[in-house]
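USER:
Class, as today's exercise, take the chain set out below, and explain how the chain folds.
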Amino acid sequence: MEYVYAAMLLHSGKHEIDEKNLEAVMKAAKFEPDSARVKALVASIKNINIDEAIAKAAIMPAAGPAAAGTAPVVEKSDEEDKKKTEEEAAAGLGALFG
């Protein structure tokens, strides 16, 4: 993941994403870059328009909409969680003492 972060920093700073620059960013962040991974990343993003990829990723929903007919997820309140925990603890103690 740190390799991608380094590439994104270079892109954000309008620097060329090449092996030399990527390794320099990695070393500046106190990582020892693996030259094979650096070469692989540079080769894999060579023909990618990073700005376009970011724009597409930004408009995609984080989670898909709920399927039709499914019940919405309802979160428990802290009070419900505390009550449930107290009931479980009491049941556990009851088992200890018969």
